[in-house]
Amino acid sequence: MIKRKQRIPMRDLSTMPAEERQNVEKNAMNGQIFNIFKVMAHHPQLVKRWTPFAGHVLGKQTLSFRDRELLILRIGWLNQAEYEFAQHELIAKRGGVGGGDAARALSDADIARIKEGPKASGWSDHERALIQAADDLYENSVIADATWATLAKTCSTEQLMDVVFTIGQYNMVSWALNSFGVPLDDFLPGAKP
Hints:
Strand content: under 5%
Oligomer: single chain
Structural class: mainly alpha
Radius of gyration: 17 Å
Mean pLDDT: 93
Largest sheet: none
């Protein structure tokens, strides 16, 4: 991964007006506010409007946990977004934010194949097409006809739409994380003390 320079510092939430601080604090998990939200706190109105969409993509969409994480990790890897990849590698291996989908957790072998891409051995046709969809959108801004046709065999129209929006959401987040230089949270491997 490419190391990024931190350009936007983490905001001291105690200096924020109560309503704006609450909009940021709504994103806490297990009482912890991740560094991405401490940086995003510099733009409280953006946080207020972006997080409902991000919440849909992360937890309320039609794709399975495994499919979602394959897409997020692949686009994070393509963008060399260290923060995004580290966060979602942890989520994917644990089987969810709270570990509730452990049966569909990703293995170390899955993570290694994500880095290799769609040509790596071991993917099902469906998984290969998901990884290829991320590559297609990253490289050409459109999912290729062959990739779409393969996904359409196993995905509903809503799921196909969620494939595109998941890749798009995490492409945008990767851009933001890389451009802002958001440092890794303390609990992530590779975080600086």
